[in-house]
Specification:
The complex is a heterodimer. Chain A contains 13 helices and two strands, in the order H-E-E-H-H-H-H-H-H-H-H-H-H-H-H. Chain A is mainly alpha-helical. Chain A is globular. The two termini of chain A are about 35 Å apart. Chain B contains nine helices and 20 strands. The chains are: A mainly alpha, B alpha+beta.
Chain lengths: ~260, ~350
């Protein structure tokens, strides 16, 4: 009985801690002393300039980051597991690095590299590439930076998933039955790693939807940057936006974990 | 379809797994690779499957050199030691996996899977998932899956070692029945000598990556080519003997020699079933222990001269030949193998 009470108490405290600020935020968006109860703030979101554009941009960036981080981490993890188990600590260290280096350092590094690169490559065809990856509508350079940041989370999620299956035997069984390497990866390994892949994807997406520093300092108007910009002019609107984006991310999380669980 | 291993060498770091292994497996034959762990039997099998590439040497399947052919183009069906069914697919899709890789139509996949499941005695299990099956059933499905593409060679990598004793015996007999029915060339890797002797056409005994002997089971048991084979397959007594000419003297008997003796003072290798025990007050030893095994009883006889002898006697004599009884020990007259004299004469029981 004591255990149950204790559990309820802990849950209650946690709920208060998380839900009270949320409730207050929601209350703030719908109640105004002069106007009373109104959903106007939410209405203003949709009509606010740049909303759809920046949200779409961030979602696209998120999708690109997910694809890239999976394509990078999964084959690497498999290769190390199957071919060179001795290299595992190395991989682990490399994927931890992005957590150690602060984002501001990345920004400085990337900005310097781009500036120096543009000068050095001015006379070559690569100059055009360098310019196009900084395209305002779909900044590939941000995708690359976010892949770096997402790597530690994706790696750990996938590693845990791989631990739960006998990868070597499954791979060899599939190879023995005529499967090519891509077939093994997409039709044998991935389906058995659904929840791990879903976890890695969600973490990557959450990271992209919440990252401000790099995008802002490099001058891109992603969704988080847009929220901050808008909040300066309309307090109620900015909180309504935060509530909305929280709801949106929750929805995505539920979808992804639903897809992960639907393995049977 | 024959399989030929030619001078296979493979080492992992400093460990030599295969040390010049050469062997030809005939069409329709079931050959067992038998040996202690680390003898190279699994490495040899994996070279045939394409999961290992030999450092030197070559593998031929049906006359074609496949040494550098990747595993997915080898046309060899394999059953693994650990459960290897795809957890996300049901039994039918597991069996039809190879056909799916080859983009065969759904109707063909389903009918072939049903046919094979019937063959391994699991008709009607198609909709189940691997986690709903017992270990024995999973290995049956794995067998059906390996056979679905009608491979030239069937490779079995200790497929029964994770199963209960009873299931193991049933399944090995079923594997043999299927193999004979389909006439498929098969390599069966095992460390269990009883398994090897009971199902194989020929047994290849390996030690340290080399072939010690390859022969039909009865010959491996009765006429082991080397002392290692003699000791690894079955149980062997080491009795002190003295060579004189073409015979060797043990317990006052002169037995004909099988092959050359390694010296004058030797160990004579004698199976427990070739040892006769009879009650006698003037005997040369007494019964130390007796373990009843149904049709036979294995006696451990302490010799007055030191050392012990194992003897198998008919089960019904177990009551008469009780521990403590003074007995005489004699040997059945037949050619015997000899080995260099070891320090203490003691029987060697194999680890099964």
């Amino acid at each position: 009985m004591a255990g149950v009470t204790w559990r309820r108490l802990t849950l209650g405290v946690a709920a208060v801690y998380f839900l009270v600020p949320l409730a207050i935020a929601v209350w703030f968006t719908v109640y105004n002393e002069s106007l009373g109860f109104s959903l106007g703030a939410y209405g203003r979101i949709v009509s606010a300039p740049g909303f759809g554009e920046s949200l779409l941009k961030s979602l696209l960036l998120g999708a690109a980051v997910i694809v890239l981080v999976l394509l990078l981490a999964l084959p690497a993890l498999l290769a190390v597991r199957l071919g060179a188990p001795g290299l595992r600590p190395v991989l682990e260290t490399i994927t931890t690095l992005p957590l150690i280096v602060p984002p501001i350092t990345y920004v400085v590094g990337i900005a310097n590299a781009l500036r120096g690169g543009t000068d050095a490559l001015a006379a070559t065809p690569f100059w055009q590439t360098l310019i196009s990856i900084q395209d305002e509508d779909f900044p590939v350079v941000l995708v690359l930076a976010y892949v770096m940041l997402a790597l530690p989370f994706a790696y750990r999620s996938l590693d845990t998933g791989l631990r739960a299956v006998d990868v070597r035997t499954l791979v060899e069984a599939a190879r023995n039955l005529g499967a090519s390497w891509p077939y093994v990866l997409f039709r044998v390994i991935l389906p058995n790693l659904r929840s791990a892949v879903a976890g890695a994807s969600f973490l990557s997406l959450a990271l992209v939807m919440g990252e401000y520093t790099i995008a802002a300092l490099m001058g891109y108007r992603t969704f988080p940057v847009w929220i901050v910009t808008v909040s300066g002019s309309d307090g109620q609107l900015s909180v309504a936006l935060s509530v909305l984006s929280l709801g949106l991310i929750w929805l995505l999380l539920l979808t992804l974990s639903g897809a992960g669980r639907k393995s049977k | 379809m024959t399989v030929e291993l030619r001078e296979l060498r493979r080492s992992f770091g400093g460990t030599v797994a295969l040390d010049g292994l050469s062997l030809t497996i005939e069409q329709g034959e079931l050959i067992a690779f038998l040996g202690p762990s680390g003898c190279g039997k699994t490495t040899a099998l994996r070279c045939v499957a394409g999961f290992e590439r030999p450092d030197t040497g070559a593998v031929f399947i049906d006359g074609a050199d496949v040494t550098r052919v990747p595993a997915n183009r080898r046309d060899a069906g394999m059953v693994f030691q650990s459960y290897s069914l795809f957890p996300n697919l049901n039994v039918r899709d597991n069996v039809a996996f190879g056909l799916r890789v080859r983009r065969r139509p759904t109707s063909e996949r389903h009918s072939r899977a049903a046919e094979l499941l019937e063959l391994v005695g699991l008709g009607g299990f198609g909709e189940r998932y691997p986690h709903q099956l017992s270990g024995g059933q999973q290995q049956r499905v794995a067998l059906a899956r390996a056979l679905a593409l009608q491979p030239k060679v069937l490779l079995l990598d200790e497929p029964l070692s994770a199963l209960d004793a009873k299931v193991r015996v049933n399944l090995r007999e079923e594997i043999r029945r299927l193999q004979l029915e389909l006439g498929i060339t098969t390599i069966f890797v095992t460390h269990d000598q009883e398994e090897a002797l009971s199902v194989a056409d020929r047994v290849a005994v390996l030690k340290s990556g080399r072939l010690e002997q390859v022969a039909p089971p009865a010959e491996v048991y009765d006429r082991p080519a080397t002392p290692f084979v003699a000791e690894f397959v079955g149980t062997m007594n080491h009795l002190p003997g003295r060579v004189s000419g073409e015979t060797v003297e043990v317990f006052g008997h002169f037995l004909p020699l099988d092959g050359a003796a390694p010296g004058e003072e030797v160990d004579v290798l004698v199976r427990p079933e070739a040892v006769r025990v009879s009650p006698s007050e003037e005997g040369r030893g007494f019964i130390l222990a007796s373990s009843f095994r149904g049709s036979i009883a294995r006696l451990r006889v302490q010799l007055d001269s030191g050392g012990e002898v194992l003897a198998d006697v008919p089960g019904h004599e177990a009551v008469r030949l009780a521990p403590g009884l003074k007995v005489d020990v004699t040997l059945v007259e037949r050619p015997v193998l000899t080995a260099p004299r070891t320090a203490v004469a003691a029987p060697v029981e194999p680890v099964a």
